[in-house]
Amino acid sequence: MTDRKDQLAANLARVEERIAAACAAAGREREEVTLVVVTKTYPASDVRILHGLGVRHVAENRDQDAAPKAEACADLSLTWHFVGQLQTNKVRSVVGYADVVQSVDRVRLVTALSAAAVRNGRELGCLLQVALDAESGERGDRGGVAPDGVGELAAAVEAAPGLRLDGLMTVAPLSGVYAGRQREAFDRLVEISSRLRGNHPAANMVSAGMSGDLEDAVAAGATHVRIGTAVLGDRPRLG
Ligand SMILES: *Cc1c(COP(=O)(O)O)cnc(C)c1O
């Protein structure tokens, strides 16, 4: 356990350095960027160690793994982000522990999240996941609404009881015109965010950037980076 703590502390310090350097290079304050550590596939004991090291935001992408982990860490003051593709039959469970759902990508999901949030008597933060490579009216291979569907989905969240529209999230596309062009992809997300904020000024979160491309995300203006492997190590399986 001590070894694991040393390892996580060293990894976290390296990631912190990268974020600080990227902020400095972009002329941004370090406080403008929130580190969200993606703990998927790793045990609750790692979450506990990370909390001890100062991490306050964690993310998960599968309800089956996340629900017991969140329960095991219920005594810690942590903000839980859900970042995976979300089936409506999992919504009740997810709303039981998630503070923010970053992967809102269709009206049906908005309806289900709203009903569950109201039932739980709480307000749930929502980010719209944008699939930069999706065609009009389509969803991305890894979830996400097409850029031209953002306005309609934002209006649905805004009108839904129990939900709060916090902003946008994206995963850099593996195919299409943005494949291998993370900086351009994140610039595009920030542009869509600017347009969104015209109608929804409070929706100012921009979640972009992972272990391999956090510098591009910070340079583009991301407010939240989602870091898994660079903190926890290579995942034992796809997650
Ligand atoms: C796993 C995951 C991450 C973290 O990716 P790493 O490359 O491990 O940093 C970020 N965002 C989402 C949506 C993920 O599923």
UniProtKB/TrEMBL annotation:
Q: Which residues form a coiled coil?
A: none
Per UniProt, which keywords does this protein have?
Pyridoxal phosphate
PROSITE patterns per the UniProt record, alphabetical: UPF0001
InterPro entries reported for this sequence: Ala_racemase_N, PLP-binding_barrel, PyrdxlP_homeostasis
Q: Does the keyword Nucleotide-binding apply?
A: no
Cofactor requirement? pyridoxal 5'-phosphate
Q: Name one Pfam family in it.
A: Ala_racemase_N
Mark the residues carrying the PTM N6-(pyridoxal phosphate)lysine: K40
What would you give as a GO molecular function for this chain, any one? pyridoxal phosphate binding
What the entry lists under CDD domains is as follows: PLPDE_III_YBL036c_like (cd00635)
Give the SUPFAM superfamilies listed for this entry: PLP-binding barrel (SSF51419)
The chain positions of domain Alanine racemase N-terminal read 11-236
Q: What does the UniProt function comment say about this protein?
A: Pyridoxal 5'-phosphate (PLP)-binding protein, which is involved in PLP homeostasis.
Q: Name the protein family.
A: Belongs to the pyridoxal phosphate-binding protein YggS/PROSC family.
> This protein is called what?
Pyridoxal phosphate homeostasis protein
| Lineage, broadest ranks | Bacteria, Bacillati, Actinomycetota, Actinomycetes, Kitasatosporales
